[in-house]
Amino acid sequence: MKELFTRDKNNPILTADQWPYRINTVFNPAAAMLDGETLLLARVEDRTGLSHLNVAKSKDGVKDWRISEKPVFTADPQNYPEEHWGVEDPRITFIDELHAYVITYTAYSQNGPMVSLAKTRDFQNFERLGPILLPENKDAALFPRKFGDRWAILHRPYQGERDAHIWLSFSPDLKHWGDHQVVLHARSGAWWDAGKIGIGSQPIETEMGWLIIYHGVQQKISGNIYRLGLALLDLEDPRKVICRSNEWVFGPREDYERNGDVRDVTFPCGAIYDQKSDRLRMYYGAADTAIALATAKMSEVLTYLKSCR
Fold first, then answer.
1. Could you read off the pLDDT of 252-281 as tens digits, one per residue?
2. d(CA 79, CA 246)
């Protein structure tokens, strides 16, 4: 049977060897369109072991990347102590009402990872909005518009040995968050997404609902495997789950996904949907070492999800 997502023949499309300064790895990029070009805001781990964010731009979103000569977003622990051990895994949402891109990212504090926000219009100048969710919490992404008079965010709190689910929270001002509730549960037992799941890219609005790409972590004797599944949330009430895939739809297969700093990881933080061409581009971290691209037809993705009701 044909797979939903097709790996790009140029994979991996970005590696540490292409970087203009010395780094260890580059992975887990957020994605957006800026001035007609594809922009990736990538997590870059340097040789201290800490991470910062940097920009890569491409006209076709596949090759001929132009990478900023220096990091565009680095940890600032003196003014933002929650960033003591770096900044990681961004997601980008363009919000029309604010005329700006809002970035959710993991601020790695001494007390564990937590969710912070920043705002930008050009990916050169950033306004930090500060931490919004307490540790341990990560894998957060904003919806691009309000529901009623409240913003909404998906995130993944984690408490030790307990299962880690995807939660939904609401805010009147992007600072004070409440009405916390689980929207997607991790399954149990031998399922591919048992015990621990988390949001992948930002929610994508479609005619059928909000497309959610999420990762599930299956624990094997040889180690964890990070695979991807799909769900749809109601367009007007994201607390309602319309459907969810039982099977994983994408997972580690190629050498660059199976071998690296962390084995067997496919981990998207950004996706771009072009409605005219019906093309969904998913940018993902491969084995916590490089960036790769897979594409799908949105119509086929939605047809598949209809069968998952």
1. 999 999 999 999 999 999 999 999 999 999
2. 44
